[in-house]
Design a protein that fits this description.
53% of the residues lie in helices and 9% in strands. The protein has helices at residues 12-15, 26-40, 55-75, 78-87, 97-107, 121-129, 153-164, 167-181, 186-201, 216-219, 224-227, 238-241, 261-274, 277-293; strands at residues 111-114, 132-135, 204-207, 210-213, 232-235, 254-258. It has a four-stranded mixed beta sheet with strand order 4-3-6-5. The two termini are 26 Å apart. The relative contact order is 0.14.
């Protein structure tokens, strides 16, 4: 499987496969296409399109928010909880991207860039360098409110946007975007993408004597946020992170635990700041040599 960020590991065709929760629900796909079409028709510099969300869509948001709130308090790191307070997303309805965009701009200078579906890694990562986050506006299918096989507005806002409301995490996202633009080869971008996955999507950090989540993938998953402590926890090792496979179709069996939030931001920030093809290749060799010594 391609090991780029979750936004680009699947094509629209794969998303609409028979295994998708919305398979056979033509009304859902027409609705989603209409939401995406409004984004595609948006002119340069035009306001983010407003979506008149249906009651069943708002109900999905309410269900997820109700479940994740107490689970965040138990399992999320302090910085993420600070982001929750700062962003203050509504719990009774899906917020408009315009609202979140306005709030993030005031908090950390990040903006929301609406996209009409899945985007490639170059666009997704590269936009972060400009403090812009590519976000979908459609909602997961109401039959499975606690599961989605692809990013939707629940994952984008409850996971990523909340992280972007916290200054230290927002700074890491921007550094990550700038780092991605220095990747000249597919091999280097692959290495970068794996680190992004194990850090900003599925990162865990030791806090209060136990693992706490800081990655958007964990923090937007009603199920995995309760189960991630059962995963194998390996030391925070960038060379290993950049060369380890992952599978998006099930809970992650392996995570990399940082010893503290400050050490995580420091080491990850240094990695992103120095990243290029040469560093990726050097760390890849280190990982191979470490494997041979075992």
């Amino acid at each position: 499987m391609d090991t780029t960020a979750i936004k680009s590991v699947q094509s629209e065709g794969a998303v609409a496969s028979a295994a998708h929760p919305a398979a056979g629900d033509e009304a859902y796909w027409r609705r989603r296409e209409a939401i995406n079409a409004a984004v595609a028709a948006r002119g340069e510099g035009a306001p983010i399109p407003l979506v008149d969300y249906l009651e069943e869509e708002d109900a999905v948001w309410r269900q997820v928010s109700e479940v994740l709130g107490p689970r965040h308090r138990r399992h999320a790191c302090t910085a993420f909880l600070d982001g929750v307070t700062r962003l203050d997303l509504p719990r009774d309805r899906i917020p408009q991207l315009r609202e979140v965009d306005r709030c993030l701009r005031a908090l950390t200078g990040f903006s929301i860039r609406p996209v009409g579906g899945l985007v490639g890694p170059t666009e997704f990562y590269g936009s972060l360098a400009e403090r812009a986050f590519c976000s979908t506006q459609y909602v997961r299918h109401h039959a499975t409110p606690f599961y989605t096989p692809e990013p939707d507005i629940v994952h984008e806002l409850i996971g990523h946007a909340t992280m972007l409301a916290e200054p230290d995490l927002a700074a890491l996202y921007q550094l990550a975007g700038t780092a991605s633009r220095r990747a000249e080869s597919e091999s280097a971008l692959d290495f970068f993408s794996r680190v992004f996955w194990f850090a900003l999507e599925f990162g865990v950090v030791l806090e209060e004597g136990r693992p706490k989540a800081y990655g958007a993938g964990l923090l937007s998953s009603c199920g995995e946020i309760e189960a991630f402590t059962a995963a194998e926890m390996r030391p925070f090792d960038l060379a290993a992170m950049g060369t380890t496979d992952y599978d998006i179709t099930h809970y992650q069996p392996l995570l990399f635990l940082a010893p503290s939030f400050s050490e995580m931001t420091g080491r990850l920030g240094e990695f992103f700041s120095a990243f290029d093809d040469e560093l990726a290749e050097r760390l890849r060799r280190e990982a191979q040599e470490s494997q041979l010594r075992r």
